[in-house]
Amino acid sequence: MKLIECPRDAMQGLPDFIPTATKTAYLNALLHVGFDTLDFGSFVSPKAIPQLRDTAEVLAGLDLSTTQTKLLAIVANQRGAETAAQHPEISYLGFPLSVSETFQRRNTNQTTSKALADVAAMHELCERTGKTLVTYLSMGFGNPYGDAWSPEIVTDFTQQLAALGVRIVALSDTVGASTAATIAPLFSALIPAFPAIEFGAHLHTTPTSWREKVSAAYEAGCRRFDGAIGGFGGCPMAADELTGNMATENLIAYLSEIGEPLGLDLDALARARGAASGIFAFH
Asked: Which ranges of the sequence are coiled-coil (predicted)?
């Protein structure tokens, strides 16, 4: 079981810049919890994501001496990937590949075919530099743009990624469109069809829909879940303002209920949640 904590996703849309020292302190608190991976920052244009323009400075302030948690940075193009790959502390580069042409253009300002070419180049870069590419299939459960979507389309994208040698694919519920009825069949079909790929779930939920989504993914065989403390963040294009990231607390509660060992330091989690409440103003 792998839990990926995503403070980057939670912070990136905040309108007021979080001081670098505050970001660094929060991430250092998260590094003590015992998550498998910390999605901590991104190497993208500061014009696109001004909140994370200080990712390199934040990285320099992280204390990795007593943690097993690995670092993941999001990139939007080859240039960002080359920058991220220069940092030995980073284990994973994450790239959002959309099954929706419209969203790919909006998100990374390129066509899906160009994005797939970038994936190939990024995977080769990761192989050269000792990193691992994590490809997020955004709009993986449907989209609001009217672009074609079906399980077969998601499978076709996965087949192309498998052919490139990509080993981690996270299905991403970009606008909260997923339901148990769409989650379960996708994971049930993809996981046995592509045994060389580790599949993850990056789910966006409302406060009342989270359990059915986690349960559907878990029961279909998914063992990699993204979350964010407090459920903060998510896609600004979601029509429902209550739709946010999967709350890490809910993930932990569900997995603990069914007896899945997580190996987390719950005292460190409580301290990190206290720090989060000051940044995100939740209770």
From this structure: none
Q: Is 206 left (phi over 0), alpha (psi -120 to 50) or beta?
A: beta
Residue position matching structure tokens 């890490």: 248
Separation of alpha carbons 231 and 214, rounded Å: 14
Closest CA to 203 of 215, 218, 212, 213: 213
**CATH number at 40-224+234-244:** 3.20.20.70
HSE on the CB side for 278, CA within 13 Å?
11
Coil, strand or helix: which one is 33?
Answer: coil
Q: Are 245 and 7 in contact (CB under 8 A)?
A: no
Q: Which pair of tokens denotes residue 263? A: 């190996």
Q: What is the DSSP string of 50-111?
A: GGGTTHHHHHHT---TT---EEEEEESSHHHHHHHHT-TTEEEEEEEEES-HHHHHHHHSS-
Write out pLDDT tens, residues 134-186.
Answer: 999 999 998 878 888 999 999 999 999 999 999 999 999 977 889 999 999 99
The residue among 84, 88, 83 whose CA lies nearest residue 64 is 88
Distances (CA, A) of 6 to 71, 112, 120, 245: 10, 25, 25, 9
Q: Domains of the chain: which residue ranges?
A: 40-224+234-244
Reported as a single tens digit per residue, the pLDDT across 240-259 is 455 689 999 999 999 999 99
